[in-house]
Specification:
- The chain is 26% helix and 28% strand.
- The chain is an alpha/beta fold.
- Strands 6, 9, 10, 11, 12, 13, 14, 15 and 16 form a nine-stranded parallel sheet that branches.
- β9, α2 and β10 form a beta-alpha-beta unit.
- α5 packs across α6 and α8 packs antiparallel against α9.
- The chain is globular, with a radius of gyration of 20 Å.
- It starts with a strand and ends with a strand.
Length: 372
């Protein structure tokens, strides 16, 4: 049992509050003015742990490596940046490789940042919007393949990205959406195809604006259709390169404080500086002071950022504190239906706590009440 005394923190409603927080058995037991001694945290600002639901790798590790050593690298790197929960994300790969990755991810016991679920980015996407995905493994989605992957993950698959126009996806969406969140992305769908997919059960947009049909003044495309539909939550890569600050400001105005989800979409190079790296079997490059990794032809491949950096970016771009914080915490938790456990500071939830200084730099991170 531990008591953090004199905390200035953001409560379950993401309003600033002052009080003490008692932690026991990895959970928040009590919040209030509590009796008993504890550690004085009056010099810090307390926020919930960040939740990154779309991340391929960082710190030299990648979910696609399918080994615990790589995952150890990822979880340690994430914990340093206040990411207390995450969804390791696969690439478009062959069926056998996906089964291998999912087996490792579902069996892994984290020593630092914890796995909240598994994110399948593909392989049922559109070749025309593949981005850095490997075209050799793109295929039509089938209920049978998804069901086998889902069952072999011990039901840990929480998110899957598809291109609904790339195959006969009607029954697939209805089936998959009863088991996880179905997202549209890496897709060339027009506005009508996108709207039909939402009506069938799609509730999520994968890295909005990137690798999808754009919004124009005559055709809403995927970007405009998903922004317009209040049933949908939208991922945003907020590194300042994937989406320009002006577009982010306008997007947050439309989405409000409850529909925006900040993701890193980072790969193994995150935290390692410049050089040549591997992503989904392809070589990618990070230039000195670069904002993201690229393929050899210059195509943006993945980011090299983290949620703490993006949170501060959003504030610098003019996004209000509450909206920025919710986009990094409770909103992603809701998207994968884990918000009863993580994403906010609330009695009964996991004691995933990030203490910041006055400049919002990370000082201490607790995961399930344990100092990371």
């Amino acid at each position: 049992m531990m008591i953090f005394k004199n905390c200035t923190f953001y409560n379950e409603f993401f309003e600033k509050e002052f009080g003490d927080i008692e932690v026991e058995n990895g959970l928040i037991k009590q919040i209030g003015i509590l009796n008993g001694e504890g550690r004085d945290m009056s010099d810090f600002i307390l926020i919930p742990g960040f939740v990154d639901i779309h991340i391929h790798g960082c710190g030299g590790g990648d979910a696609g490596d399918a080994d615990s050593i790589s995952l150890d690298k990822m979880t340690s790197e994430l914990a340093k940046h206040g990411v207390t929960s995450f969804c390791p994300t696969t690439m478009t790969l062959g069926t056998e490789k996906l089964f291998e990755i999912i087996k490792v991810l579902s069996d892994y016991k984290s020593k630092k940042s914890k796995i909240a679920g598994i994110n399948l980015e593909g392989p049922f996407i559109a070749s025309s919007k593949k981005g850095a995905q490997n075209a050799d493994y793109i295929r039509e989605g089938t209920i049978d393949e998804f069901d086998k992957l889902y069952k072999n993950s011990n039901h840990m698959i929480k998110l899957i990205t598809i291109a609904p126009e790339a195959f006969d996806s009607c029954d697939f969406i209805k089936f998959a959406s009863q088991r996880c969140t179905v997202s549209i992305g890496h897709s060339n769908a027009n506005a009508l195809e996108c709207k039909n997919a939402v009506n069938r059960g799609v509730r999520h947009a994968t890295h909005l604006f990137n690798a999808m049909t754009p919004m124009t003044h005559r055709e809403a495309g995927i970007a405009g259709t998903m922004l317009d539909d209040e049933r949908v939550m939208c991922e945003l890569i907020c590194d300042g390169g994937h989406i320009c600050p002006a577009v982010l400001r306008n997007t947050f105005k439309i989405l409000g404080e409850d529909r925006a989800i900040t993701i890193s979409d980072s790969m193994r190079a995150a935290g390692l500086g410049c050089g040549e790296f591997e992503l989904g079997g392809q070589s990618v490059f990070v230039e000195k002071d670069g904002k993201y990794a690229t393929l050899s032809d210059g195509t943006i491949a993945a980011s090299i950022t983290n949620l703490h950096t993006e949170f501060k970016n959003l504030l610098n771009f003019g996004i209000d504190f509450k909206s920025a914080l919710k986009s990094c915490t409770i909103n992603p938790a809701k998207a994968i239906k884990e918000d009863s456990k993580i994403g906010s500071i609330q009695q009964g939830k996991c004691a995933d706590l990030v203490f910041l200084d006055e400049n919002l730099n990370i000082k201490e991170v607790y995961i399930n009440g344990i100092l990371a």
